[in-house]
Amino acid sequence: MATNRVLIGDNLPLLKSMGDESFTLIYVDPPFNTGRSQTLQQTVAVRSSEGVVGGVNGFQGKTYERIRGSLRSYDDSFDDYWGFLEPRILEAWRLLTADGTLYVHLDYREVHYAKVLLDALFGRESFLNEIIWAYDYGAKSKNRWPTKHDTILVYVKDPKKYHFDSETVDREPYMAPGLVTAAKAKRGKLPTDVWWHTIVSPTGKEKTGYPTQKPLGILRRIIQASSRPGDTVLDFFAGSGTTGAAAAELGRNFVLIDQNPAAIEVMRLRLPANTEFVTT
User: Fold this and answer.
1) Which of 220, 217, 113, 94 lies closest to 157, judged by CA?
2) Using alpha carbons only, what angle is made at residue 135 by residues 82 and 265, rounded to the nearest 5 degrees?
3) For a designed S-S bond to 232, which of 64, 215, 218, 253 qualifies (C-beta 3.0 to 4.6 A apart)?
4) 71 occurs within a structural domain
5) Domain with 122 in it: what CATH number?
6) CA-CA distances (angstroms) from residue 277 to 244, 265, 274?
7) Cα separation, 236 vs 11, whole angstroms
8) Does any domain span residue 89?
């Protein structure tokens, strides 16, 4: 079996077929809430001291009671966005190694609901960071503050064991280099939880033509910090394959999942020649 694989098919049954604790790092960039208006029943998950009828068995022996709120209307291309995403996040927790980390990349429409869901599923003590990726490109609204950022929520499998190595991360220039020594200015500073990074340039060499492509620099930073050379990274909304491309550059193995023919075509051209494409 090839070390680097692209699995072509529905990600949920593929995730369920994988063995426990297979990946040190999982990054997902799920479809954002940008489609047509749908009716969705809002769900809030809270911890319960005892099992309840209709409850969801949680991690570490805990049980989560489902409390159904009022029906709300969302702009979404899914009949039930969270009904779609939640079982995949459950599988992500199972697939992480004890020292593993999950990165969930969303925009402002859904990230607040995702935070509540992830707190319930992983436990609030497993929340590591809320990363703000800020950029300044494209059209800007004149009737509100222009939305020019995405949010990446970071959760660890075990808050006492997770791997994180900031010293391996690509450094960035100081915003005020005159305020630090020449040696520090030359070396650059470690990133904080606010990442100023351009989007993929429409005319740059990195551009693949895939509409939701994320920059290599963002994935490099994630992979450098939360995995080691030789570890295996999973992305089950692979899109243009940026996670695989960054992992290969950094000496990590990868498993990517997608079923969009356009995404598969881009990845065949972009990923290393030893990548195995498996139709399921």
Assistant:
1) 94
2) 60
3) 253
4) no
5) 3.40.50.150
6) 13, 11, 10
7) 6
8) yes
195: pLDDT confidence band, cut at 50, 70 and 90?
very high
Q: Is-contact 95 15, C-beta < 8 A? A: yes
The one-letter amino acid code at 248 reads A
Phi, psi (5° rounding) for residue 126?
-90, -5
CA-based nearest residue to 223, from 247, 254, 191, 258 = 247
- Is residue 116 situated within a structural domain? yes
Q: What is the pLDDT of residues 34-66, one digit of tens each?
A: 443 334 344 444 444 343 334 444 444 444 444
Reduced to 3 states (helix: H, G, I; strand: E, B; else coil), residue 55 is coil
Mean per-residue pLDDT, 224-235: 98
Residue 160 falls inside a structural domain: yes
- Residue 111 structure tokens: 């990230």
pLDDT at 230: 96
Reported as a single tens digit per residue, the pLDDT across 136-164 is: 877 788 899 988 999 999 999 999 999 99
Give the range of the structural domain holding residue 181, as residue numbers without chain letter. Answer: 5-33+80-279
Q: Where are the beta strands (DSSP E) in the chain?
A: 5-8, 23-28, 37-48, 56-57, 63-75, 96-106, 127-134, 149-156, 194-196, 232-235, 253-258, 276-279
The total number of residues shown for the chain amounts to 280
Identify which of 98, 93, 120 has the alpha carbon closest to the alpha carbon of residue 28. Answer: 93
Provide the terminal-to-terminal Cα distance of the chain, rounded to the nearest Å: 15
Domain count, the chain: 1
Provide the whole-model pTM.
0.84
